[in-house]
Amino acid sequence: MDLSKIKTLIDFVGRSTVSELTVTRKDVTVRIFRSASDGAAATVDAAPEISSDTDLKASESPSLATAVRAPIFGVLHRASAPGQPPFVDAGDSVEEGDTLFIVEAMKVFNKITAPCAGRIIFLTDIDGGEVHANELLAEIA
């Protein structure tokens, strides 16, 4: 099972009402569960001997990242104004409280800030488009 499949499963659990999902493929078991902070987390268990045709190697186990989700439905802005550089890019380091996005809803501009310090490992490509409440916008590890 490759990392993109695991990420898809994590996103599914994060968006749905499913509280736990366990998937086993060959010698790898992925358990995804909803954490107390209402996000999805994953654990990966591998048998002591992983065959060479197994996609997921022990060194590729997913890190537990902090998800940044849209708090409300609105228009997502990645920069403070048109033509300005984005607040953050994938790979940037952020501190807790740094502005990541602005969600415009009913002519009110809501700042979305980093819930923790870390590095941006996933960043949505939406800019100037609509986002729905609880939609994954970024991940910080």
Question: Nutshell version of this structure?
Answer:
It contains one helix and eleven strands, in the order αβββββββββββ. The protein has one helix spanning 3-15; strands at 20-25, 28-34, 40-46, 66-69, 74-77, 93-94, 99-105, 108-113, 118-123, 130-131, 136-140. The strands form three sheets. The protein has a four-stranded antiparallel beta sheet, covered by helices on one side. Strands 8-7-5-10 form a four-stranded antiparallel beta sheet, with no helix packed on it.
Shape: elongated
Strand % is 35-45%
Low-confidence stretches: 43-62
**What is the strand arrangement across the widest sheet?**
4-11-9-6
Instruction: Let me know the number of strands.
Output: 11
Major β-sheet annotation: 4 strands, antiparallel
Classify the secondary structure makeup into a structural class: mainly beta
| Share of helix, binned | under 10%
Mean pLDDT figure = 77
SS field, number of helical segments: 1
In whole angstroms, how far apart are the ends? Answer: 21 Å
**What is the element string, with H for helices and E for strands?**
HEEEEEEEEEEE
As a whole number of angstroms, the C-alpha radius of gyration is 17 Å
Report on this structure:
This protein has 141 residues and is mainly beta. 9% of the residues lie in helices and 40% in strands. It has a four-stranded antiparallel sheet with strand order 4-11-9-6, covered by helices on one side. β1 and β2 form a beta hairpin. Mean pLDDT is 77; it is low at 43-62.
Descriptive labels:
1 helix, 40% strand, four-stranded antiparallel β-sheet
